[in-house]
Design goal:
CATH topology of the largest domain: Rossmann fold
Oligomer: single chain
Radius of gyration: 23 Å
Number of strands: 13
Shape: elongated
Strand order of the largest sheet: 3-2-1-4-5-6-7
Order of helices and strands: EHEHEHHHEHEHHEHEEHEHEHEHEHEHHH
Strand content: 15-25%
CATH class of the largest domain: Alpha Beta
Largest sheet: 7 strands, parallel
Distance between the termini: 12 Å
Helix content: 40-55%
Number of helices: 17
Number of domains: 2
CATH architecture of the largest domain: 3-Layer(aba) Sandwich
């Protein structure tokens, strides 16, 4: 099968699950082409060279004016020996998405694409829908979290896309509930979380016993990730508790959070801002940490938490989105209300003062996650839903 992935920004370090899925498809024997809207920063993207060598990548470049659009439309009709592109343009909504994809259609028309898939219900899913209509092949898409919360393409466009798609995916049952709340038809949706390469987690981190508690937080510096609650909780800890926090990720709140740590909380000597790291570097940091904390206000099924659990860390996360579907408090991790730093403070103090069987909790997290989130198994399942 030949699959065309229509993506927003590629590659990007915060969406390694997309590249992992593409690599799984190629290794399963499928041909893959990527059509991207924006070229991302590949500096920390571990698999980008492999993808460049094995996958054709094209940039989506909409026509520059009406005359250009007409030329591409005529060309599309000639290529297909049909007026189908014209009819598609006249009947498709939103029409601008169809017009934007005419040059991409011309590039791909001789490739014999069998299926089109988009990640995130943003502009890229509208482009995937348009390309599907132009090429007369089925398409599918995956919704993750922000695209349900913020509805960047609006409800009407989302409902049209859902109606037209062959099948759709999302990463948690919580996302299905959120879609139902806005009136979406969820009958075509399959719940398949993003997987991880379990071979990378052969060696677990060393469980916490005593001394300094090394804490990691892998999350982009964005308001939705709620770093301030984490930092407030740490500033409230019993003074006898020694800790060091590593914040891994970059984003718009970089300077604000650094100022908050220094000026408001006076704990800058206990916090390191490490910026964006490659996936290999993230795993290295997890292996020398004891705890991973994800304090987000909203999540789908975050890969950062999955990787931390597979690494055998004590995982503490906010009780939002799909996180309660994987974390059982006191069994394989801990949950807290993201609006209440005192709840996080108590969990950390109970861990430090030995009130839990940490070895058992970490072992449960690791074994359950590796069994449930294997990338190859989940990718195979997804492909079977797409192709069957």
């Amino acid at each position: 099968m030949h699959i065309c992935y229509v993506l927003g920004t590629f590659p990007t370090t915060s969406e390694t699950f997309v590249s992992d899925e593409i690599i799984s498809c190629v290794k399963a024997g499928h041909k893959v082409t990527i059509a991207r809207i924006y070229q991302g920063n590949a500096a920390n993207h571990a698999n980008v060279e492999w993808i460049k060598s094995n996958v054709k990548i094209i940039d989506i470049k909409p026509p520059i004016n009406a005359t250009d659009s007409l030329k591409f439309l005529i060309s599309a009709c000639v290529i297909q020996k049909s007026v189908n592109p014209l009819l598609s343009l006249l009947t498709h909504h939103p029409r601008w998405a169809m017009t934007a994809m005419l040059p991409t259609f011309k590039q791909l028309c001789h490739e014999k694409i069998d299926h089109i898939h988009a990640h995130f219900a943003d502009k890229q899913v509208l482009f995937a829908h348009a390309l599907s209509a132009l090429m007369n092949v089925p398409f599918s898409f995956t919704m993750h979290g922000y695209d349900i919360r913020d509805l960047p393409i609006g409800k009407d466009n989302l409902f049209r896309v859902i109606k037209a798609t062959k099948c759709a995916f999302t990463v948690s049952a919580a996302n299905i509930s959120a879609l139902k709340l806005i009136g979406a038809n969820t009958s075509k949706f399959n719940i398949i979380p993003c997987g991880i390469d379990t071979s990378k987690f052969a060696t677990p981190s060393k469980p916490y016993t005593e001394g300094e508690l090394v804490i990691a937080c892998v999350a982009r510096l964005h308001p939705i990730k709620n770093h301030k609650t984490l930092l407030q909780a740490l500033s409230m800890l019993d003074k006898s508790i020694k800790f060091h926090l590593k914040i891994i990720g970059d984003g718009e709140l970089d300077e604000e959070l650094k100022s908050f740590v220094k000026e408001d909380l006076n704990i800058c000597h206990k916090v390191s801002f490490m910026g964006s790291l490659s996936s290999e570097q993230v795993l290295d940091e997890l292996l020398i940490s004891h705890v991973h904390i994800l304090p987000s206000f909203n999540e789908g099924m975050p890969v950062a938490n999955t990787e931390a659990m597979a690494s055998g860390l004590i995982c503490i996360a906010s009780k939002v989105g799909g996180l309660p579907e994987i974390i059982q408090p006191g069994v394989n991790g801990f949950l807290f209300d993201p609006k209440h730093p005192e709840q996080l403070k108590k969990i950390l103090e109970d861990i430090f003062f030995g009130k839990f069987n940490i070895d058992k909790i970490c072992t449960n997290a690791r074994t359950q996650t590796i069994a449930k989130f294997d990338q190859i198994k989940l990718s195979t399942l997804k492909q079977s839903k797409i192709f069957n």
